[in-house]
Amino acid sequence: MISIREKFEEREKNFLSPFGTLSSKSKGRKRKEKSCAIRTEFQRDKDRIIYSNAFRRMKHKTQVFLSPFGSQYRTRLTHTIEVSQIARTVSRAMHLNEDLAEAIALGHDLGHTPFGHSGETALQEVFLTNFTHTEQSIRVVEFLEKGGKGLNLTYEVIDGIKKHSKGVGDIFARDPKHMAETLEGRVVRISDIMAYLNHDLEDALRSEVIKKKDIPDFCTKMLGKTHSERANTMIQDLIFSSTVKDDSLILRLSDDVHNAMKELRSFLYNNVYRADIVHSEFEKAKKILIDIYNYFMDQENEELFKKVARKMRLEHLLESKQDYKTTVADLIASMTDNYVMELYSKIFFPKSLV
Fold this sequence. Notes:
Blueprint: H1 4-15, H2 41-50, H3 53-57, H4 76-93, H5 98-107, H6 116-126, H7 133-144, H8 155-162, H9 183-207, H10 217-223, H11 227-241, E1 243-245, E2 248-250, H12 255-273, H13 276-297, H14 302-311, H15 324-334, H16 337-348
Antiparallel strand pairs: 1-2
């Protein structure tokens, strides 16, 4: 008797375009597993990510502003949900595998440090110069979750997570080394950019770091005045501008929308991410994490380190054969903003004796 999973797989064959990734054709997992009777391989990956400890922690991790302390601002989790929604919309419209795109989107920021990119910079200074949240996300799904076993995700989802990052580089990856193997992975990359351009701008306006009149006129003219208008413009432009060439689907944007997105990103970097008020908080957060890292690098503080690892359900790190400094970095990268503040207070603030 045909299983529910097989019915879904057959539906994919009838619905997906030739460029979509069939779950039945996945390259598989590092550790082979028996197929699920109900879910496709990519649906299973999505569930594993959602139920992971790292996914839950993102609700208390900074996107740009110290958002966990202001309920109206995006957190790393709400950012992830917005990326996922955009990726699903685009994938469905282009007849790609929506489940694969969603799984990649949900997992793309699992390795982000507390306090956003300030945490990433802190660990680059004291731990590893080329530390990135992207590589840490791979560590999360391959080692840090499930007591050291990892989530055992499919090859396609791991590849998409690994290649989502873009920094201030090209919006579209052109170097094959930085380009996801699947179209769904490439959709997540551009969806990530669309999401943060929109919500970081909205959060910056809400916080009054910038004002509406500061936004470049060309960006407003081409993309729209509101979050909804900008999102619709970007998403529809990607869907209708992408073309088939030499039997390949090439993701692209119209020149005007592409240039407006690049200008908006440059505006955000210069006027929001590097704004004095944002940067000063960035430096404070960075110092906190560096102080905690150095504190735990002192072996005399090992007992507290063990207690923290157990509390965070990362006790398998204590038995790991990896370098101690890597273990400390793994623990700190996994912390939430509010737990870092609580821990910093416990370690460094004086306590009343009366």
